[in-house]
Amino acid sequence: MPATRELRRRIKSVKSTKQITKAMELVSSAKVRRASQATLSSRPYADRLDELLQDLLQRGRNGYHHPLLQARPVKTVLVITIASDRGLAGVYNAALLKKALQFVSEQKK
Q1: What pTM, to 2 d.p., does this model score?
Q2: CB 71 within 8 Å of CB 50
Q3: Is the dihedral of CA 43, 48, 51, 57 positive or negative?
Q4: Res 76: pLDDT
Q5: Could you give the CA distance from residue 44 to residue 7 in angstroms, rounded to a whole number?
Q6: d(CA 48, CA 54)
Q7: Number of C-beta neighbours around residue 26 at 10 A
Q8: Which pLDDT score is estimated for 60?
Q9: 33, 31, 26, 2: which is closest to 18 by C-alpha?
Q10: Is the pLDDT of residue 84 over 90?
Q11: In the prediction, which pLDDT does 85 show?
């Protein structure tokens, strides 16, 4: 009877592995669905950014000269940082602020 007992143990092990694999498949499909939704929701932003850059490029080629874009001596510098408040962006925000502070300290010299 040891062969029968061993066979039952293996069948139980295979069923357990199948159950774990099915759970992993469900989790991964949910993650893929969430990632695709995030990609689709950022699409309008990317499209608008592309339009804006194309417009700026076209204006530059046409010789468009805005008074604020004229070359002049630099007296003061304004640094604008845009950080993220969504997701796990702590490292990004820390690196961004570190670079901004580094830039400010270089400008003071």
Answers
A1: 0.42
A2: no
A3: negative
A4: 86
A5: 57
A6: 10
A7: 10
A8: 76
A9: 26
A10: no
A11: 84
